[in-house]
Write a structure and sequence with these properties.
The structure is a single chain. The protein has about 240 residues and is mostly helical. It contains eight helices and three strands. β2 and β3 form a beta hairpin. The longest helix has about 40 residues.
């Protein structure tokens, strides 16, 4: 009975890893709020060139000699992404049709991924190769962590939890591998926008686009840190039981 109470305390107690999870969670909420606030602000600022997000994307692809990528509209908000499998730049309805600074920034960023693909950017290739493994690992974590903790509490068995921790480690690594991919896509987007004054005709527009993409990148940073904090929590739980 004493051992059971000890393990329960370890699972829910305010140890260092648990405290780190709370801190990162609060930072994540703040960053998400700031990003959405910035995106809303820059979505209300009309692009001086009058181009839509779709037109910006099409121009960037054309300027990079990419003719086999289609720009399409998808439902939802902030659902913009590049799909390397079917070679499509997917822009949310607001970004696709909007003629704002935010729409231009997002469209150029997603095309940055298409440029990475066309140039065989190593981090994107590595990330794409990991996708099937990460999908399996994500499915494993949903069950093994929960079942593993229960087995740890009632039987002291650590094998299932260990499997869950290893799967979570793969997912966490994927989160960090995503960071250079996202930062590089923004770098390519901003460089192209800076060299094409017909798209963004003022320095202020470029600075606003840079600010929007920086806050978008920060959401990936805190997501990676959140995954790391969660991993450390389960590792600490596993080690405390083994010790």
């Amino acid at each position: 009975m004493d051992n059971l109470l000890l393990i329960i305390a370890q699972v829910g107690g305010f140890n260092s890893a648990w405290l780190l999870m709370i801190v990162v969670g609060l930072i994540s909420l703040a960053v998400q709020w700031r990003f959405r606030s910035k995106f809303k602000e820059y979505s209300e600022i009309s692009l001086s060139s009058g181009l839509s997000g779709a037109e910006v994307a099409q121009r960037m692809l054309r300027d990079h000699g990419i003719n086999n990528v289609q720009v399409i509209s998808v439902e939802g908000q902030l659902t913009d992404h590049y799909n390397p499998e079917n070679r499509t730049v997917n822009l949310s309805d607001d970004v696709y049709h909007s003629r704002s600074v935010a729409a231009a920034a997002v469209a150029a960023h997603e095309c940055g991924h298409a440029v990475q693909h066309a140039k065989s950017y190593s981090w994107l290739r590595f990330r794409s190769a990991m996708v099937p493994i990460v999908q399996t690992a994500s499915t494993l974590t949903q069950w093994t962590l929960m079942i593993g903790v229960m087995l740890l509490i009632f039987s002291g068995n650590t094998l299932v939890l260990l499997i869950g921790v290893l799967a979570l480690a793969v997912v966490t690594a994927f989160s960090f591998i995503t960071l250079p991919v996202e930062f590089d896509a923004s770098r390519r987007a901003l460089a192209w926008l800076n060299n094409n004054h017909s798209i963004m005709q003022t320095r202020q527009e470029h600075d606003e686009a840079k600010d929007a993409l920086w806050w978008a990148a920060m959401t990936y940073v805190v997501a990676a840190l959140g995954a790391l904090a969660t991993l450390l929590y389960y590792v600490q739980l596993l080690n405390s039981r083994r010790n």
